[in-house]
Amino acid sequence: MRLAFTGHPLDRADHVRADPARLAALAVPEARVLKLDGLIPQFDSDRLTWTTLAEAGEDAELVFLGLLDGEACFGAVPEGGDPDPAYSRRETFAALSRLNLDDLALYGGARSLLDWHARHRFCAQCGQPTQPAKGGWQRDCPACKAQHFPRTDPVTIMLVEHDDRLLLGRNSRFPPGRYSALAGFIEPGETIEEAVAREVLEEAGVRVRDVSYVMNQPWPFPSQLMIACHSHADDDTLTIDETELADARWFTRAEVAEAMEKGEDSPTFIPPPPVAVAWHLLTWWLEKKA
C-alpha cells in the first residue's frame, strides 16, 4: 500500500529553479498558486484547490513548487510557520483524510517548504533579513552572503519485539487511548541503528538488538523523514522516562490485530491513523508472520 505523502507528482525542475529567466517566463498572471489558509489545505471533494498568480497579489512571497504536466505551480509563503505538533492540527488532519494520494504528496512537499520559509526570514549567521533564491529552494543573506537551504530532519520510528509482542507507547499529547511506535530524532554522529537503540533505551529502559530497516515516509509537520525500523529485545522490563512518554506497554499479536481491525472502537488501544507510517509498520508486522 502506498504511504501518505509519497509519490510526489510534480517535476521538481531544478533546471528551471536555477535559471532566473526561465522562471520569470513561467510566472505569468494565470500561473497556478496553491490555495492555503495559512498552512491548512483548501480542497474541493478530494482535490486541492488553486488560485492564480494574479489573484495571489504582488506582495506575495512565492515559491516555485515545480511543474505539473508542464505547467508551473507556485505556493505563497504564509505570515508565520506552524509551531504546534502535528496531532494538534485537527483542521489539517480532517483535510488529509479526504485528499487523494497525489494531492496529499503535493501538499506535503509544499507545506514543508512554505513552513521553512516562514520560519527562516532572518539569517542564522548574522540576523539580517534573507531573500528567497533559486525559485524558493534557497534563501540568501545579502548582508553576510550566507546561503540557507530547506532542511529535512531524520527521525527513527521503531517496533520493538519480544516473545511475539510489541512495545508501544503514548505521548501525553496523544488523543486518549492512542498508542504508537516509539520514535526519536537521529542525533549528529549517529547511525540509524544507533539512534533506534538509544531512543528505546532512553524512553523505555529496554536494550534492543538486530535493528533492521523497513520503510520510510516524508512527514511534513514540519519537515521530517520518518525512518521505520524493527528491532528485538531480550528483556521486557520497562523503565519509562515520564518526561518522554505518558505510558508504554507490551501488546500481544492478538491485541495489535484487534486494534488495527477496530480502529477508534478498539477496547485495547487506538492505533495510529492510516496517514502515519506507524500504521503501516504495524500492518507490516502483522502480515510478516501471518
Could you characterize the architecture of this molecule?
The protein is of the alpha+beta class and 290 residues long. The chain has helices spanning 14-17, 20-26, 53-56, 90-96, 101-119, 192-204, 253-262, 277-288, and strands at 32-34, 36-37, 40-41, 43-44, 47-48, 50-52, 62-68, 71-76, 131-133, 138-140, 147-148, 153-162, 165-170, 182-185, 208-219, 224-233, 247-252. The protein has two domains: 14-119, no CATH class; 153-288, Alpha-Beta Complex (Nucleoside Triphosphate Pyrophosphohydrolase). It has eight helices and 17 strands. Strands 12, 13, 14, 15, 16 and 17 form a six-stranded mixed β-sheet that branches. Helix 7 crosses helix 8 (277-288). The longest helix is centred in the middle third of the chain and has 19 residues, at 101-119. It is globular and about 60 Å long. Belongs to the Nudix hydrolase family. NudC subfamily.
